[in-house]
Design brief:
Helix content is 58%, strand content 5%. The protein is mainly alpha-helical. The protein has a three-stranded antiparallel sheet, with no helix packed on it. Mean pLDDT is 92; it is low at 1-26.
């Protein structure tokens, strides 16, 4: 999972000065007459300059909407505009270069401080102290926007590099030069004024939510089946990732594996409805029967009604919502977290995402693939089969054997950094010099949580790769996660160092970095030397992506609909939110899944931890899978490294412009749907 930088929190704001909308809880003191007189003064100064007219009009209007009495009088506003608007193209380019240099220094240092302060929380080691958690919740960049407005730097940027809406970027951007794209991205920087204390509160809340999830482990060796037997070895699995990945490993073990899968499913249900005993979370002092929901202590004392978790999961979700609400009022252009996540963050509308996901999950191909899985398993499907893993090459391999190999290859983080990563890049076709360059800009750490990648925001710093590494080395789950996160790191390094303008660094949205991470992850066994020459390999890979999309699209819709409900019911309690999330999960399940997976009203789609620690992030995963499939089609018959180095330096275009550059078409589910139908026939 990629962590999203908190520095670019501003949402788009195009308001004429005449609207006098509230911003920063104060009224803009620049009215329509001031805007007009300012534009007239510019006309007197420059005459009729068609090359300046659009930029001048946008810049003055947008600056006026952000200017308050604290910034100066209307006369001072006009004087500021006349003194700081840059008409000469060479001088404007010089200003853009200066802004990019300074932004790299500021954002890079802010990011490095955040990484360092969070090391005790994110990296395996001694248990974090209360002081560690307080430092982890601190946001070094919280005052950045306020300082930029106070110093008038933000107004200089707004005046000279105006903001363009997503629709305008998609329409006009096809004819823009790279320099014009860079100017447009500078225009995205300062479009709202979120007070530092509000930003700090949001950062603290999200840090607390991340800490809650990172320490939510189930002690599998202490689970009891309905006969009181322990069927799992001693291991701590984080929810939901660890539980899900463990469930996937038991598809080749007959009735014994099925029993383990059903137990994990029951554990998940207890987490979702919060009937899980609080004392069994991250605690090995109790044996727990998730079916009867009873516990047994070390002395053998049984408790038939242990205290449950008390809706902590949903209170955390609710607290995230309230923290986001505080930001809403300072973003009149995108006044909800939903709007910021989709229109501003993904640069794809909520409605377009919903349409894509509904189109996919309602397709006839879902039923065809479900019947194929049923035939392969030799039984009726059950709800947890949304995680069916039998289309992967490793599905025929014993995970214990794979773990023995990965532990031997990568006993330490240093081994993966110095041997694993270079080997992966060489196998993808990267030359030695480029491979060494990328690896030298990635730092590997043992993760306290499930694992993640963290980008660098300046070229003198490193990206971070985190995965779980046990005392006896990296098991297969840790390796599989590491390969995924390394895909993120490769993207992060290329799109920081190889993009022509710093302000264009990165990708259109996190789905695009997820796409490359998936490209890496699907080749994890190839990197270990397990070459698959099966003629049905391509069909299997297609169906693996298809079923993964089907699963995560439903999860994303639950997340989206839950946030939509919260905005309609902002006074909800944690108990009410829990009830509604479960209801939404059941409704989505019944619409798209129950017909094929054998159970009405399953709440399983509500298990995802991202709903709690990464608000409104989940849609990026299926969107990323769609992009991944289109990328994989582009990669066929080509050197993967060459295509990565051709495609990713395009940087942060809008999604549709990026895809046209990468594969020649826009984002669409149709290629995957068509390929899935053909794959079913082939198998």
């Amino acid at each position: 999972m990629k962590r999203i930088s908190t520095l670019l929190l501003a949402a788009a704001l195009i308001l004429s000065a005449a609207s006098c909308k509230k911003n920063n809880n104060t009224m803009s003191n620049i009215d329509e007459s001031c805007v007009k007189s300012t534009l007239d003064a510019f006309h007197d100064k420059y005459g009729d300059r068609p090359d300046l007219q659009d930029r001048l009009t946008r810049g003055v209007q947008q600056a006026a909407a952000l200017w308050t009495a604290e910034d100066g009088t209307p006369a001072e506003f006009q004087e500021f505009c006349l003194n700081h608007f840059v008409a000469d193209s060479a001088a404007l380019q010089a200003m853009a270069d200066q802004l990019e240099r300074n932004m790299e220094s500021l954002w890079g240092c802010f990011n490095k401080m955040t990484v360092d302060l969070n090391l005790p929380i994110h990296v395996d080691g001694p248990a974090p102290t209360e002081l560690d958690e307080l430092f982890g919740a601190y946001d070094p960049s919280a005052h950045f926007s306020a300082d930029m407005f106070q110093q008038k730097i933000a107004f200089i940027v707004v005046l000279n590099f105006p903001f363009y809406t997503l629709e305008e970027k998609n329409t006009l951007g096809k004819d823009w030069s790279r320099q014009q794209w860079a100017y447009a991205r500078l225009g995205d920087l300062f479009t709202a004024r979120v007070p530092a204390d509000v930003q700090q509160q949001l950062t603290a809340q999200l840090s607390g939510a991340d800490n809650y999830i990172s320490n939510y482990n189930i002690m599998m060796g202490h689970l009891l089946d309905e006969q009181g037997n322990k069927i799992f070895p001693d291991m701590a699995l984080i929810t939901h990732w660890g539980l899900r990945d463990e469930l996937k490993t038991h598809y080749n073990e007959g009735d014994e594996g099925l029993a383990k899968q059903r137990m994990i499913y029951q554990v998940m249900r207890r987490i979702i409805d919060q009937s899980i005993p609080a004392c069994v979370i991250n605690n090995a002092d109790y044996d727990w029967n998730p079916f009867s929901n009873t516990i047994v202590g070390k002395e053998g004392k049984k408790d038939d009604s242990p205290a449950r978790e008390q809706d902590v999961r949903y209170q955390t979700f609710l607290d995230n919502f309230h923290a986001m609400q505080q930001v809403d009022k300072y973003n009149p252009g995108y006044p909800t977290a939903i709007a910021r996540a989709f229109d501003e963050g993904m640069e794809v509308s909520y409605e377009e995402i919903e349409r894509l996901f509904d189109e996919f999950c309602s397709s006839e191909q879902v039923g065809e693939v479900a019947k194929l899985i049923e035939a392969r398993l030799g039984r009726k499907l059950e709800p947890f089969d949304i995680w069916y893993d039998g289309f992967k090459s490793r599905s025929t391999l014993n995970e214990d054997d794979l773990s023995a190999l990965t532990r031997r290859l990568y006993p330490t983080r240093e081994a993966f950094a110095t041997q694993g990563m270079p080997s992966i890049l060489r196998q993808l076709g990267f030359g030695a010099e480029k491979a060494n360059f990328i690896c030298s800009h990635v730092t590997v750490d043992p993760s306290r949580g499930a694992g993640h990648a963290w980008e660098s925001n300046m070229r003198t710093d490193n990206a971070r790769l985190r995965t779980r590494i046990g005392k006896d080395g990296m098991d297969y789950k840790g390796y599989n996660i590491a390969v995924h996160e390394f895909g993120h790191n490769v993207e992060q390094t290329i799109t920081l160092h190889d993009v022509d303008h710093y302000i264009m660094k990165g990708v259109p949205n996190t789905a695009f970095t997820e796409a490359l991470a998936f490209v890496f992850q699907t080749r994890d066994l190839d990197f270990l030397g397990y070459k698959n020459d099966d003629p049905k390999k391509e069909a299997m890979e297609t169906l693996d992506i298809f079923w993964g999309c089907y699963e995560i699209m439903g999860v994303a819709l639950v997340d989206m609909y839950s946030w939509h409900w919260l905005y309609e019911h902002p006074g909800a309690t944690a108990a009410e939110l829990k009830e509604q999330v479960i209801k939404i999960a059941q409704e989505v399940w019944n619409k798209y899944y129950a017909k094929y997976l054998g159970e009405e009203d399953s709440p399983i789609l509500a298990i995802y931890s991202h709903m709690i620690d990464s608000p409104l992030y989940l849609a990026n995963y299926p969107y990323g899978h769609i992009i991944q499939f289109q990328l994989e089609q582009q990669l066929k018959g080509k050197v993967v490294a060459d295509e990565i180095q051709r495609i990713y330096p395009a940087g942060r275009l809008t999604p549709q412009h990026w895809m046209r550059h990468a594969v020649g078409t826009e984002v669409s589910t149709q290629p995957l749907l068509t390929a899935a139908a053909e794959a079913v026939k082939a198998l």
